[in-house]
Amino acid sequence: MPHDLPKAYDPAAIEDHWAEYWVREKLFAQPTPKAAEQGEPFTILLPPPNVTGRLHMGHMLNQTEMDILVRWRRMTGRRALWLPGTDHAGIATQMMVERQLTSEGKTRQQLGREAFVERVWEWKHQTGGAILDQMKRLGASVDWQREYFTMDENLSVAVREAFVRLHEQGLIYRGAYIVNWCPRCQTAISDLEVVHEEQKGHLWEIRYPVIDAAGKDTGEFLSVATTRPETMLGDVAVAIHPEDERYLRLHGKKLRLPLVGREIPIILDEWVSRDFGTGAVKVTPAHDPNDFAMGERHHLPSINVMDDKGHINAEGGAYAGLDRYVARKRMVADLEEQGLLVGIKDHINNVGHCDRCKTVVEPRLSTQWFVKIQPLADKAKEAVRQKHIHFTPEMYEKTYFEWMENIHDWCISRQLWWGHRIPAWHCAQCHKITVARVDPTACAHCGSEKITQETDVLDTWFSSGLLPVSVFGWPNITAENRADFDAFYPTSLLVTGFDILFFWVARMIMLGCWFAEEVPMPDGSRRSLADSVPFREVYIHALVRDANREKMSKTKGNVLDPIEIVKTYGTDAVRFTLASMASPGTDIAFNIARTEGYRAFANKIWNAARFLFMNVDRAAEIGITVDPDVLGAMPAVGEDAPLEARWIVAELHATAAKVNQSLENYRYDDAANTIYQFFWGSFCDWYLEIVKLRLDFPMDGPESESASQQASKSTSRKAALTTLVSVFEASLRLLSPFMPFLTEEVWHAVYDGNPPAKSIALTSYPQANAGSVDEQALVRMHKLQSLISGIRTRRKELNVPEKVAVPVKILEWNSLTGGSEIVSENLSLVKKLAQISDIELLTNKLDNLAWTVALPTDIVVVYEALIDVPAERERLTKDIAKYEKGIAAAERQLGNEGFLAKAPANVVEGLKRQEAETRQLLEKARAALENLNEEK
Ligand SMILES: [Zn+2]
Ligand SMILES: [Zn+2]
């Protein structure tokens, strides 16, 4: 006997309890397998949120999608592992702790590197990773035993091994390079971390004096245009197009750099656009990537004029020490005073900003560490080209290739203190570099002990790019220590957002393929590219927008906090809202009204459970119980079972087939909506109503029934109760991945606290048995439903009070449909559900009675006393107009030869059939109106 559920569904009261239970009982732990053949794995890595992060709507969608798939796969018997962790997030975390220090009046420099890093760890231990606690509360079915942090000891070993190995393979080098420099964060940032924004700026035109061979002014000038005049301090040439006729006479001449006095050459380069500005461009290799390339082509020096903070350095002479923008102002004023400023024009600039702190990025030459990307990128492209990795939606495959075709060497060094410090040591004696797996005490080249470690740390994406291999034990894959790697690599699926397709997804493919290929297969054979990929499937999820389809942003103030919504409506309702709208490539317009609707859905299920339990209790009072063996499987009934039992079982099978199919295709929306229709529409609205009649428990308690009465009903009652409970139990399992909390609570109640497993999540997912969908039952029940709905509608139209039973007359629309047979077989059902006192089946056309149409049956509700003749006349007149309009439209189309020539035959057929049907309806409505007019 099931235990009592509280009267009202209160998500807050049940969700905390189960969330805590799932973690405490380690229900979703997937320990290292003992033998590789323990079922096909389903492995999925959680994209590690920043350790500083807080859950937002995007996470909520991403995690809901992952959890649905993981719970579903687990219930279908796969060895499911969802692996969580957090990212140390170099820039974000360092910035946050720096901000804390600022509020204490300190700087990280005052603390020193070691103390600062210690301080970050302290912060991490106290408050870091709060986002994972939020995930726990939301019931994510991850394996918490395997939780990692990208700075953990074992993962750091992997990072170091990857660096050293790439270095040994000649794929890591140091070089001077133009990087995007953030003067606030004081580090290089990757192209992907630069946000470009159009800004109103200026274009300054400056005259550079032309000088002769002796260095004397010729009195002639060459004008250049620039958007960053302060960088002219680092000019080493001015470039013109070799065929620019305006400047042919200046070929081979030199210029004197204003404000600085340096002599610089005029160079010829086809890259120069003759249409931009004056057609002459200053060349500043240390502060512009294009100029840097030009400098390389012409073997020009690079003069870096700024320090880490964006201040002019000693190279800037009189301007040394000034902030870049202060220097700009002063230099422009000085140029004007010297008569060298030609003019200032307004100009729209595309300015790069630091994604983290929004400071304007300064392109700047610096020495950085790089990964030579080409052999890695080629392999990564090959893996996708050979379909070892599949993208959903498929269009992202194209995006991936476009990016991989244009990929540059990857700058992996960052000038931060928080992160994996580069394992390279500089020698003060021979100036060579020692890269080592174990911290060296002496230079590997000259043996000097005067060595110091590189101060840069690695790009955060270098470590997260290694996760698919490192979380399963790489690089220490030994005979005794490879069960995890063998079982779970490659992972099955990655679910992530478009924004980190290149940051993370592409890097995982490059690093995963590169390093995993070196790991032999369990049998010692060589690993193929197909088995080296980090994941076999990538699902790129969409954006969650607000109800008006606007992107959520703090500036607009339309950001929804998922935790707040969960507090109001419960996790299950929020999850269901997201699922009901999630499909590949479609953004979600999150509307709270929908969440309210799904909160009501949860409530409906709760109430259905309470109704069901009440009936189970009543049955028990007269000795009828459900055999527990029938639960936990797919319900089945015999052909001789009542229609509603055959029908609900058939519906359940059909629903299960559709839901499984939808989830295979990432159609969360179809899956959720199918379950919703089944649970609310079929099970609650129809089946429960019917089964109540079938159980037919006496109103006044078991004593009011005689022993012989009870005995005669016993078999049918037991059958009805069994179908009711088993279909409900299976429905809970079907819904469980979508609404894990509610289903867990109710499922435990079904078993009255003695369930066959620790959680519904560990039971099996409903699968349709092949051939078990009883199509005939579906068709017959559908007819019965339209008949009953038709009578109900007609009763409403006639304002028949709800409790009053009325007689109806039913005429079959088409004798082939077998409608009257279905009615006669289910007479008592129809009578009760439609409040009918008497049913008369007619075989002839009706005469003078008001009637309505409910395909496939005509229904007459005999309730003349209450017919409001004028209202009825109005209704029929409206219907007639509607039918006439429909017929006219169909005639127009069918008379259009162009249409007939082009339209497919079945469309034309359909249209003709529809027209014929409408004509019949019109005829009937006209006849009815005539009857009405005669009657009055
Ligand atoms: Zn910054
Ligand atoms: Zn040395």
Explain the overall architecture:
It is a single chain. Helix 10 crosses helix 15. Strand 5 and strand 6 (187-189) form a beta hairpin. This protein has 28 helices and 29 strands. Strands 7, 8, 9, 10, 11, 12 and 13 form a seven-stranded mixed beta sheet that branches. Strands 6-5-14-16 form a four-stranded antiparallel beta sheet. It has 936 residues and is of the alpha/beta class. One zinc ion binds next to loops. One zinc ion is lined by residues 182, 184-185, 354, 356-357, 359.
How much strand content do the residues show?
15-25%
Overall geometric form: elongated
The overall pLDDT average reads 90
- The N- and C-terminal alpha carbons lie at a distance of 60 Å
Bound molecules: zinc ion
Q: Count the strands?
A: 29
